[in-house]
Amino acid sequence: KLLLFGLIYLGSTVASTRYSLSSHKRIANGVSSPDGEYPFVTSYQHVINGHFCACVILTNVWLLTAAHCVIFARQYALSEVQIVAGITNLISSSTSRQVRKVLRQYSHPRFPGGTKPNDIGLVRVSYPFDPSASINSIRLPEYAQEFYGVVEIVGWGYRRSTYPAITPDLQMAQTSIISTNQCNSIVSQYATVDNSQICVVGYRLGNETTCNGDSGGPLIAYLQDVPHCVGIMSWNLSPCGMRGTPSVAAKVSWYTPWISCRIYFDATNPTAVC
């Protein structure tokens, strides 16, 4: 992977730091989530190689994820790809665990790859999930709805770049949304963020970020204590877990028309352009 050199400004201090761009992310400097806290978070897996991304349950057959996760999954036959729901531990044999094969996968047609906008996708499973205390859907925001303040990131895997091993237990962390201008002032040497994306930085310690393997997972805001999926995690600067560096998500409220269109035409015209 190409490593990029850059300057990051933390307050009045200029720190010279080596960065690269990272997708397929997992939570750095998070904590283990309680069982049942995030019943809408699932693992997008290869049947042999295991977890590679996360997905978010929208209905009993539809899940939201990142476009680059769908593109990654397409290297495998559909029979080799599955969604695992109802777990917080990836190796758990819990009775709440449900596994479904993938029937169809859609990536946004205007996602060109890398750190560009439109990194959002949909997955339809072959058989409905059975709702339970451990498996449930999450609400989406209204079209063009904006969010501010503290939001949560959730995912499995690497806690830091220097320890590249999957974390079996689902991790979570609180983060704060920052402005597009503020985000670009940090990442502009490597990428450009626009208004269809959301940037967050660590809230409690400042070093909570996504890391390798969290892509496709939710950025969660609570409206009257009801969780809403306001973002789908896309990429971050690497090494992950660096204080003051942002994690970047696709802004879901920009894509609700595409989501609705894609689901509507799935049964009658899966090749329809949305």
Description of the molecule:
The chain is mostly beta strands. The protein has 2 domains: 110 residues, Trypsin-like serine proteases (Thrombin, subunit H); 116 residues, Thrombin, subunit H (Beta Barrel). Helix content is 9%, strand content 37%. The chain has 3 helices and 15 strands. Strand 13 and strand 14 form a beta hairpin.
Order of helices and strands: EEEEEEHEEEEEHEEEEH
Tell me what portion of residues adopts beta-strand conformation.
35-45%
| Helix proportion | under 10%
What is the count of helical runs? Answer: 3
Number of domains: 2
Helix-strand makeup class? mainly beta
Instruction: Record the strand order, biggest sheet.
Output: 10-11-12-15-14-13
Described by strand count, sense and barrel closure, the largest sheet is: 6 strands, antiparallel, barrel
Number of strands: 15
Q: Uncertain segments of ≥5 residues (pLDDT<50)? A: 1-26
Mean pLDDT: 85
CATH superfamily of the largest domain: Trypsin-like serine proteases
| Alpha carbon gyration radius | 17 Å
Named at the architecture level, the CATH assignment of the largest domain is Beta Barrel
Cα separation of the termini? 34 Å
Name of the top-level CATH class of the largest domain? Mainly Beta
User: What overall form do the CA principal axes indicate?
Assistant: globular
User: What is the CATH T-level topology of the largest domain?
Assistant: Thrombin, subunit H
